[in-house]
Specification:
The chain is an alpha+beta fold and 167 residues long. The protein is 60% helix and 16% strand. It has a four-stranded mixed sheet, covered by helices on one side.
Length: 167
């Protein structure tokens, strides 16, 4: 019985290693294929301008430019996910908003929210949603900073914000 068990474990380990190797091989094949496509696009001068700049920085061994690009791309990724999580949280809490707008300031996403007068539930929801999302995304160096106004405050959304459609 023990020998059977050992053989089963050994087979399972071999299968796991084979599966991991398969995934690794597939990933490298896709990466090489993508690079070859980009090489062809570079040769025919049909590649996206931003990609062209990144490849040029890599070929020129301009590490600062490459890292700058990587940082910009990771920031976009995390900021998009942070805003999406915040909106999903507001929807899940059935938050009633008159207006919602966003702006980006370095690693801070500014939120401008207008609610009905004396709507304590929506105000709490905006604050708690921000707290939850900030707790999730602080490790990536970004956070939300909400500003909440009521209808009767009669304050328009500042020009540097981008209004979201939220209904």
């Amino acid at each position: 019985m023990l020998k059977e068990c050992d053989e089963h474990i050994k087979c399972q380990c071999l299968n796991d290693n084979h599966s991991e190797q398969s995934i690794q091989n597939e990933w490298f094949e896709e990466m090489i294929s993508s690079l070859k496509i980009d090489q062809l696009l570079m040769q025919t001068n049909t590649i996206d301008e931003q990609k062209k700049e990144v490849y040029k920085a890599m070929m020129d061994k301009n590490d600062s430019k490459v890292h700058q690009y990587a940082r910009e791309m990771s920031s976009r990724h995390f900021i998009y996910n942070l805003v999406e999580s915040y909106i999903n949280e507001l929807v899940e809490r059935k938050t009633e908003l008159n207006k919602l707008a966003f702006d980006l300031l370095n690693s801070k996403v500014l939120v401008w929210a207008e609610i009905k007068d004396d709507d304590e539930y929506s105000e709490d929801s905006l604050i708690l949603s921000a707290a939850k999302v900030n707790n999730e995304f602080y490790k990536y160096g970004i956070h939300l900073s909400p500003t909440i106004v009521e209808e009767s405050d009669n304050i328009k959304i500042p020009d540097h914000y981008n209004q979201a459609i939220f209904k």
